[in-house]
Amino acid sequence: MSANGDLVEVRVFGPLREIVGRKSVSLPYAGMTVKHALARFAEDQGDRVRPMLLDSQGNRRRSLILLLNDQTVDEDTRHLRSGDVISVLLPLAGG
Amino acid sequence: MRPFSEAQIERYSRHIILREVGGVGQRKLLDSRVLVVGGGGLGSPVGLYLAAAGVGTIGIVDSDSVDLSNLQRQILHATADVGRPKCLSARETMEGINPDVRVVPHQLRLTSANVLDVIGDYDVIVDGADNFPTRYLVNDACVLAGKSLSHAGILRFEGHVTTIVPGRGPCYRCLYAEPPPPGLVPSCQEAGILGAVAGVIGSIQAAEVLKLILDIGEPLIGRLLVFDGLDMTFSTVEMSRRPDCPVCGDRPTITAPIDYEEFCRLHDGATLQREVQP
Prior knowledge:
The complex is a heterodimer of chains A (95) and B (278).
Chain A: E1 8-12, H1 15-20, E2 24-27, H2 34-45, H3 50-53, E3 65-68, E4 85-89
Parallel strand pairs in A: 1-4
Antiparallel strand pairs in A: 1-2, 3-4
Chain B: H1 6-11, H2 13-16, H3 22-30, E1 33-37, H4 43-53, E2 57-61, H5 86-97, E3 102-106, H6 115-120, E4 124-127, H7 132-145, E5 148-155, E6 158-164, H8 172-175, H9 188-191, H10 195-214, E7 223-228, E8 233-238, H11 260-276
Parallel strand pairs in B: 1-2, 1-4, 2-3, 4-5
Antiparallel strand pairs in B: 5-6, 6-7, 7-8
Helix pairs in contact in B: 4-5, 4-10
């Protein structure tokens, strides 16, 4: 139902990339807060992604970096606009 | 300043002609002490370049032995080393490249009990570990001891690298306040790693260490460099120190090194408290 004007790009890094199957996806998240969009993304991507991003209470994990347009952001207050880019980085264990 | 031998002048001539290094810088490198945590995919290029550069004392921490599956990327070790302790194999390779270098093997696993002692002898620390408990332990210890740290992680075709200088920018916990729950984020063993990606990222770490010792250029302080080996792109994420960081923040809650198991227990306790609140 969403028009293209609602689209936000979500870029994923590290182990998320293999599971999501792409480097980025465009999703109709405009208007949501950044925090809400992350929760929505976690739910939409299914059982392998969800626990990487959210704890059992549904709160955002502190083991990830969440950026808006390559900058840190107030996740609770900033509302997404069409064309915004969210980046979700997980730490890489390998050495 | 102690004079160089003729062999040293020749060996380091390409450094010495660099205005930013010169004889004074080369002497700094020879007098410096660097600890490499992990003699694996990242530790290999780091160790090779630091030894070749003439870093005078290089410690290497690794409790493992060389496995055949390591050799696809861990270029400190050779086929004949399979089954030998990585520390000793690494020492032979590094001292073989440069007799000016003394390699100190630390054949142990870092824990909250030994980490401050081990890092205490060194000027700069390199994190090339293959697991989160060691990464958090090394970060916390470096913040507590005020040691500069080159941090990097790799997986599949991707690498992340940053430089942590306590008091001058964010630490690892400012980026990722806590480790992912065990089992959720895969290791290279589970997800794979293109060998040359370890070479790219480890070489960046080596360059950062040399810059820190020489006090030249702009280290990756406050910048997370993200390498995508499939697209062959580098991007930079700017990060700041978090005032609420549990170890380098304004009111730190971590004031001594903690082991991952203990960390998990504390965290579970916190979760439990939240759950019993109305």
